[in-house]
Every structure is written in C-alpha cells, then in structure tokens.
Write a structure and sequence with these properties.
The complex is a heterodimer of chains A (275) and B (312).
Chain A (H helix, E strand, L loop, with lengths): L3 H25 L5 H17 L14 E4 L5 H10 L39 H15 L6 E6 L6 H12 L5 E7 L2 E2 L2 E2 H4 L5 H7 L3 E6 L3 H13 L5 E6 L22 H13 L1
Parallel strand pairs in A: 1-2, 2-3, 3-7, 6-7
Antiparallel strand pairs in A: 4-5
Helix pairs in contact in A: 1-2, 1-3, 1-9, 2-3, 2-8, 4-5
Chain B lengths: L3 E3 H15 L3 E5 L3 H4 L2 H6 L4 E3 L4 H13 L3 E7 H7 L1 H9 L6 E5 L17 H6 L5 E3 L4 H13 L4 E4 L4 E3 L14 E4 L4 E5 L3 H14 L4 E5 L2 E3 L3 H11 L2 E8 L4 H12 L4 E6 L9 H7 L4 H14 L1
Parallel strand pairs in B: 2-3, 2-4, 4-5, 5-7, 6-7, 10-11, 10-13, 13-14
Antiparallel strand pairs in B: 1-8, 6-12, 9-11
The chains are: A alpha/beta (275), B alpha/beta (312).
Chain lengths: 275, 312
C-alpha cells in the first residue's frame, strides 16, 4: 500500500513526465503523443517506485528489466529515464534528430537504460520472455516488466510469447497491456477486435489482473500481487485513456502519431499545470 | 573423400561440448530438435534447452532476450523457417541490436530432398547476407562445421550458420581451424578458380581432378564465410587465374555467386560463371537426383569450367 504522500508524489512525477513528453514531441515535431501519455502512469510507478534499478550503473546484473514492447511510446520511456538521471534532461530536446541517442524507437545500443531494441510490434514481449528465462537460469532476483499496446496484441507473436511464458512458468515476468482502445486507424475493436484480453491471457494460464491504468495506488497494488504469484507470469490489463492528461488529446486516434503544434503545446501545458 | 558425415550431426555433438564448457550456452528449437540434432543438447542440459514449439518468431525473440540477459543462445530450425518465417524478428531483435544470437539453420538447400520445394531454402544466404551486422557461414563438411560452430560461439554478435540434411563428403581434417571471414584454398591452379561453399566444395574438388586429366589447372577456393567475404582471397584468385566459376546449393541470386560478382566487379572484373539454382524453386526427389537435375554436380562444374575457358 502506498501512503497518500507517496501517491501525491508519484502523481506529481507523472504530471512532470507528461510535460516532458509534450515538450520533446513539440520540439521534434514527430513522434507518438497519444500512446505515450496513456502509458505514463504505469511507467511512473515502475520507474519511480517499483523497479530495482541503478541509473548510475545501468548494467547492474540484478536489476529489474523494463521492455517497452510498444516501442513507439519511446518519448514516455525517455522521459522516465531522464527523470531517473540515466542521462541529462537536456538530451530530450534531441529526440529523433540525426546523431541523437534518442532514436524514434528505443535502441539499447544508444540510450543508457534501454534494455532491448523495440518498435516492431509484438517483438518486445518475446525478448522479455527471454530475459526472464535468462534471469532464472542465472539465479538472479530480477523481475522483467513489459508494456504492450492493445493494438499490438493483434500481432500473432504476442500470443506465441504468451504461450511460452506460461509454458515455462515465468513467475518473474509481468506484462502490462496499455488498453487505451485506439490504434492509428481507429478504435481497436473496429480495426480488429481481439475481444476481451483478460480471458485470453487467463486461457494461456497467466495470472490476470485488470486495473485503472491511471490510478497510482491500483497500479502499485497490481504489481504487489504480480510479484506474489511466482509460478506463472502475470498480465495486467490497464484500462487507460489515449492522450491522458490533456483533454483535447484524449480518446483521439488522430493523435496517435502526431506531435503537438505551438498552440496545442501551450494549451496542454496550461492544462497540466492546472491539475 | 570417401567418408561422409551430416553437418547437422556434428552440430549436435559440438553443442553438447560447448554446453559442457560454458554454462551460458543455451539452445532453442521449434519442434525440430530431432532433425536439427539439438535434442542431444536437450538431453544433457534440459534446463538450458527451450523448445519454442512451432513458433519461430517467438523463438527468435526469446533467443534475443536470452542474449540480452547474458546467455549465448543457439536457435535452430530448418533454413526456410529460420531465415524466412522469422526474418523480421532476426532483423529487429537480433541483427539491428547486434545481439549475440547464433541462428543455426539445418536443412538448407535442395538436398532436403523428398519434402519438396516448400522446404528447400534456396534464398536464405541472400536474405541473411543483406542484413547489416550479420555474419553468414556455410561450412563444407562435418569437421569444418564443428570448427565453424565453435568460431560462432566465440564471436560476439549475430551469426547465421547454414547446414544441410544429408551426409556429405569430408573435405577438411578433423582438427581444422575456422576463421570467420577467411576462405581456404584447397587446391592450387592457374587456369581458373572454383569459388564454392557448402557441399559444392567437394564437387569442385572432384571437378578439378577431372579437369587436371584434361590438362586444365583449376584452383579451388572454399568460402565457409559468405559474409564478410574474403575479398583478398577472391581478388587474388581472379588476378592469378583470370576466370571464376562459383558454385552453391542456393539461388545464383544474392548468395555466394552474387557476393563474388559484387567483389569482382569492384576489384578485378574477370569472366564469371555462376552455378546454382537459376532463379527457381526446388521440388521433391532424392538429394542426388535433385543435385543432378539442377546442375549441381562435378560434371556440371567441368562444363562450366569449359565454358569459362572459352570466354577468357
């Protein structure tokens, strides 16, 4: 259980991270706004409360790993990593620029703190499964977290990975689905309705939880429960709002891959400051 | 050259040796461990063997994750599925990050035989060669396979190794070395050079012996590494013999023949004949029948040599 004070602090961190995401996307004028904002609260809890990691020693072997399987939400990851001091906040201004270590999609060889390369949907979760296997083989206490999009789960590879994680009883693996209900072409249920996700993971023999993906306390409790389940992987279906935190971005597929304009940034920053 | 060994058998044995030497060696397969011979490893090291089931995309991603976690994964299945089915996973999760994953594909080429064209990869070398950061190996025989697998294990980065199904003649000594990026001159000659890979190297040695009886001096250069290609050795052979015949159990497009032509066009243009699949798929038949049907025998190499001597 988080204290009220902890919750307030994490909410404040998430608000700052949203501001960072919007500023960096505004500067780059390219990138994915909606899905970065929907994922922020889950990632805030992971990076600022849940995961054991050491920004001054990113290669620490016993660290927990985070794999952003929905790699297009890279701005959210970069905001978290800069917020944890993996690299200077000023670097965020170089997002997507030639020569920058902040690529359009996460690159383990360029950005301190990025565990694997992602961006091609469906592939991060398989790598997370491999990382969980490696941790177990090496008797490391590491837990592996991976965040997927709810459009991403249309990729067949996600279910291959789900099958294997349960088959190998990877209790050290936790997958979170950022269920914001939208993908580039529209509503996920209209583009390709995969149906209820919880029962699908359950049918593959995962432990399944459903939470409000913007409720810091609920997210943290879900991670507590996931850690207590040691004989199988846990899937957390996080109900989220695409563009969360900025009313005129919310629930809009049109902001999937569009950066904020000057005017939108100003209004968005005002909105976030008022929260 | 009377002894015959299947390269996949040596692969299976070498994996077990590597497993004993290094606890970080792990093996993945996609329900073909009996055929790829990774089953030998799974019996001795069950905790370090991961059967992915019939799911090559996930197998490749898991291998990448295991590598990211400090392991040395070998992932095996048939070449059509390894290089084809899981191509984009190899690109994104293995080659792009430069992950330390070894993809060892068995059943490459037409000598898969009776299973037919659907299972005969004639394009895997071309596909894998096109990927930045990827090293591509295609050993000639059993002994070289053992050495190549050891070299791949010692190398830090992505490697694709192509092996075959059937038994092939032994060309190399039991204790041969393998250096990634270095070819080997197996027979000297001055009139033309056979540049070959995989099982075609044994055919080239036979062809060179036949040609010697006709007073034609044919050099045989074996490239166990398709990428990075041994530029110096290829150019030297072209300069010294003035004509090159390439031979591979693969399409003439993009594999060994393609790589040699690219190298020669830039460095030493000489006439080239490419022996291989002429932009076509295979079909069912015995391995021997198929090699004869598609022109991949010593006799065909002799004909190719005669053609190229006329063009010199």
């Amino acid at each position: 259980m988080l204290t009220d004070q902890q919750i307030r602090e994490l909410e404040e961190t998430a608000r700052h991270l949203r501001v960072e995401v919007l500023k960096m996307l505004h500067t780059s004028q390219s990138g994915h706004t909606g899905g970065s904002l929907s994922a922020i609260d889950v990632m805030t809890v992971l990076y600022f409360q849940r995961m054991r990691h050491n920004p001054s020693n990113p290669a620490w072997e016993d660290r927990d790993r985070f794999v952003l399987s929905k790699g297009h939400a890279a701005p959210a990851l970069y905001a978290c990593l800069a917020g944890c001091d993996y690299f200077p906040r000023d670097d965020l201004k170089t997002l997507r620029r030639l020569g920058s270590h902040l690529q359009g999609h996460p690159d383990m060889n360029k950005t301190p703190g990025v565990e694997v390369c992602t961006g091609s949907l469906g592939q991060g979760i398989s790598q997370a499964v491999g990382l969980a296997m490696a941790a177990r083989l090496a008797s490391r206490p590491s837990r592996v977290y991976t965040l997927l999009g709810d459009g991403e789960v249309q990729e067949g590879q996600v279910w291959e990975a789900a099958m294997s994680a349960a088959h190998y009883g990877l209790g050290n693996l936790c997958a979170i689905v950022d269920q914001n209900g939208l993908q580039i072409d529209g509503a996920t249920e209209e583009v390709m309705n995969v149906g209820p996700l919880g029962p699908k993971f359950l049918a593959f023999n995962w432990h399944v939880l459903e939470v409000d993906g913007h409720d810091i306390q609920a997210i943290s409790r879900a991670f507590d429960e996931a850690e207590a389940v040691t004989d199988r992987p846990t899937a957390i279906i996080a109900r989220t709002v695409k563009g969360k935190g900025v009313s005129f971005f919310e629930h809009k597929a049109s902001y999937h891959g569009v950066a904020p304009s000057d005017d939108e940034l100003e209004r968005a920053l005002q909105a976030l400051a008022l929260h | 050259m009377s002894e015959k060994i299947a390269t996949r058998d040596i692969y299976g044995q070498t994996l077990v040796e590597l497993g004993r030497e290094n606890s970080r060696v792990v093996v993945l397969d996609a329900d073909l461990s009996g055929s790829t011979k990774t089953k030998l490893f799974s019996k001795e090291f069950p905790e370090r063997f991961f059967n992915a089931g019939i799911a090559e995309a996930n197998m490749t991603g898991m291998a990448a994750g295991l590598a990211a976690g400090g392991m040395i994964p070998f992932a095996s299945t048939f070449a059509v599925f390894a290089a084809g089915r899981a191509f984009e996973q190899i690109r994104q999760s293995v080659a792009y990050p430069g992950m330390n994953v070894k993809i060892v594909a068995t059943h490459g080429g037409i000598t898969v035989g009776e299973d037919g064209g659907s299972h005969q990869s004639v394009e895997d070398l071309a596909i894998m060669r096109s990927l930045p950061k990827m090293t591509v190996l295609c050993p000639a025989d059993g002994p070289e396979t053992g050495a190549a697998i050891r070299a791949a294990a010692a190398y830090d980065g992505p490697v694709y190794v192509r092996l075959g199904r059937g038994k092939v003649p032994v060309v190399f000594d039991q204790d041969c070395d393998f250096t990634i990026g270095k070819g080997v001159t197996l027979r000297d000659g001055s009139d033309l050079t056979f540049i070959t890979t995989g099982l075609m190297t044994a055919e080239a040695l036979q062809a060179a012996a036949i040609l010697a009886e006709e007073n034609v001096s044919a050099r045989v250069v074996h490239l166990g590494t398709i990428k990075p290609i041994d530029i110096d050795l290829v150019l030297k052979a072209a300069r010294e013999t003035g004509a090159v015949v390439t031979a591979e159990e693969h399409s003439v497009i993009g594999g060994l023949g393609g790589a040699v032509c690219e190298t020669l066009a830039e460095g030493c243009p000489v006439p080239v004949e490419r022996v291989g699949l002429r932009d076509e798929f295979g079909q069912s038949g015995t391995a021997e029948e198929l090699l004869a049907h598609y022109g991949l025998t010593a006799a065909h190499l002799v004909e190719a040599a005669e053609r190229i001597l006329a063009r010199k």
